[in-house]
Design brief:
Length: 331
């Protein structure tokens, strides 16, 4: 008899943070489209003083936390005091009238520490920028490379997301190439999620968002979870398109994360409820809500509305309410 796989929506914080790579993917699959991933920006002050954005996202119903703009060469997560010896020289901060910012900018905080504090599996974005000059101001520690992926694992990430922020010029071919490169470096255990939430400054196809040949290439490269935009978040992407792409990805053995990464995460809660149901109807396995509310994360009430639409109040309130120190009922 095969061992039962626990659904991610049932797991308490202690069990969530013990999941290995393949166990995490199995728990997501078992939840049947009821996994919520919330993205937060690590470089901006938190929405609420005294509480980091990852903590707030977890408190309002997120199962998974994704850190955007995380630099593996200079890890930091705003909302926490800086680690001693990290960040700019205190004398320099004082000179520019910035004394005290080290108390909230979280220099030196790693993804692994966020997992422990928030009680959720934590991933980071790495961006598969095509070869050539990096965009102005882009930190090399954010680029999708095998070296940066290994550093991320050393810093405690539970999964990687390969995608591009606006204007970075990320292409589908670069995504596939870096999935393959990271797989060769790190093997199969680490969950890798990749794709495009929006154009990222590059529109490659005239008629379709994602061609069959690209899907096949991603599957052969070893991708676990394909990122696609939710219908209604990118011009011309309809429910029929998304359903077709999801079905094809599933046929190739990949799960799918459907994303709200075009600032609509800051719209009315009713918009998020509709997007959540559309994504579930299309067959999405993970439902993502982006980081562009006011700045740095979606409004917390929208994360909660998204979660309730996907799985009701019982599962949402449990996720919101369970203590990090609660004794786990899962072995």
């Amino acid at each position: 008899m095969s061992q039962k796989t626990n659904r991610i929506l049932d797991l308490d914080p202690a069990a969530l943070t013990r999941l290995s790579g393949r166990e995490l993917l199995a728990a997501i699959r078992a939840a049947e489209g009821r996994t919520v991933l919330a993205e937060t920006v690590v470089t901006v002050p938190p929405l609420v003083d005294g509480c980091s954005n990852p903590e707030l996202a977890a408190a309002f119903g997120a199962d998974l936390i994704l850190l955007n703009l995380y630099d593996v060469n200079r890890p930091a997560v705003a909302g926490f005091p800086a680690r001693k010896g990290t960040g700019p020289d205190p004398k320099l901060l004082k000179e520019f009238g910035l004394s005290g910012v080290e108390e909230v900018m979280g220099w030196g905080m790693t993804a692994g520490e966020i997992r422990r504090i928030a009680g959720r599996p934590v991933g980071i974005n790495l961006e598969p920028i095509p070869e050539g000059e990096l965009p102005k101001g882009f930190a090399p520690g954010r680029r999708a490379t095998a070296e940066n992926a290994r550093k991320a694992v050393e810093q405690g990430v539970d999964f990687l997301v390969l995608t591009g922020n606006p204007g970075t010029g990320v292409t589908w071919s670069a995504v596939a190439a870096q999935v393959r490169c990271i797989r060769e470096e790190l093997g199969r255990d680490l969950p890798v999620m990749a794709g495009k939430m929006h154009g990222a400054g590059t529109w490659e196809n005239q008629d379709v968002w994602l061609e069959e040949s690209v899907l096949e290439e991603l599957a052969k490269a070893g991708l676990d979870v394909l990122l696609l935009p939710q219908s209604g978040t990118v011009p011309g992407v309809t429910p029929d398109h998304v359903k077709q792409w999801v079905d094809r990805a599933h046929r190739f053995g990949m799960m799918v994360m459907l994303t709200v990464g075009t600032s609509q995460e800051g719209a009315a809660p009713t918009v998020l409820e509709r997007l959540a149901l559309d994504g579930k109807a299309a067959g999405g396995d993970v439902l993502h809500i982006g980081d562009a509310g006011f700045a740095g994360m979606a409004p917390p009430e929208n994360i909660m509305a998204y979660s309730i639409a996907l799985r009701g109040k019982r599962h949402t309130y449990r996720r919101m309410g369970q203590s990090l120190t609660r004794p786990s009922r899962f072995k």
